[in-house]
Amino acid sequence: MANERKIELDGLRGYAAIVVVIYHSILGLDGTQLDRILRGAWSNLGPYEAATKIFFKVFDGELAVTLFFILSGAVLFRSLMREDGGLGGIAGKFYVRRFFRIYPALLACLVVCGLAFAVAGRGVTMQDFVANALLYDFKINGATWTINAEMIAPVFLLLCYAGYRVGKEWGLAIVAFGLMYLLTLPQFDGYLVSFRISWLGFALGVLIPTRIGEMAASILPRWSWAAVLIVMIILRWPLREICIALLVATIYYRRADGIDTFLSNRISQFLGRISYSFYLFNVLFLELICDRLRQYPWAVAHPLETGVCVAVVVTACTIPVAYLSWAYIEMPFNRLGHRLTGRGRVVPAVPQSVPL
């Protein structure tokens, strides 16, 4: 299975992207809910707020983003494990492929969002565009802070890979824990902010393709994914992150009976393949719709049910745009990155047509 694509992970990523949209659609109508409800004590909440908090727990955008980081760590480290040659050459090729995977769709999205927001009167400047494109500031597309972490992570992954080449799992663990310690030093305060938030996800992800991940997945019963899914909704950092990694490991090694088939079906695969562009472009529709709805007191007073409706509309509007971005921007530039680095052609995991 060394060269086999883990298509179930694509499906998992697609549904995680939809969870992010639902989460942000509710928060977008009343940002005070984050501290007042999601992080507030149960004893201070009325019935409506308690129901909203439960909904946030089930459709937790922060959990979904952590899942993205763990998936990236697993998939990218598995890609490194398949490489041959010197570490310098591997690092250069790795970053070239990563650049062509991330940046073309990102730049296209920023152009579209910037123009649309400027027309809507949001005062977008060229300085805002450049800062967002450089992943320094995120005024045009706030969701792109995670892309900042994704572009820093390859340095972490390459150092872990160097440790792995020297000492296998022990070498990987020593390097990973050493880097984790460095990130806690006060000298890094104010730097690498996004990666300091997300490093645990990437660190757990790199363990999944190794014997450590395989051992963890083999110990768990094949039905355990359901229990892990429930537990990770309840727990907090860092136990929640560990549970997410266990869920990904069971799916990675195809030891999640039932959910494997669901994540492999045609619709799940389609959502997975467009998930990156979907994650980027949903912000365009989400911001425009929420800006308009916040003018109506009834929408702000009922953010849960209004937000769910917004999420349905945003998802429906974003899917065709994300498909076009995937088919005509992501895939061509992804193939180009692989050709430039000597990799074989990229084969999509779903047909080139939208399933009905």
From TrEMBL:
GO molecular function: acyltransferase activity, transferring groups other than amino-acyl groups
Pfam families referenced in this protein's UniProt entry, alphabetically: Acyl_transf_3
Keywords annotated in UniProt: Membrane, Transmembrane, Transmembrane helix
Gene Ontology CC: one annotated term: membrane
UniProt-listed InterPro entries: Acyl_transf_3_dom, Acyltransferase_3
GO biological process: polysaccharide biosynthetic process
Transmembrane feature ranges: 12-29, 63-81, 102-123, 143-163, 170-188, 225-253, 273-290, 310-329
Protein's UniProt keywords contain Transmembrane helix: yes
Annotated ranges, domain Acyltransferase: 8-324
Protein name: Peptidoglycan/LPS O-acetylase OafA/YrhL
Gene source species: Afipia massiliensis
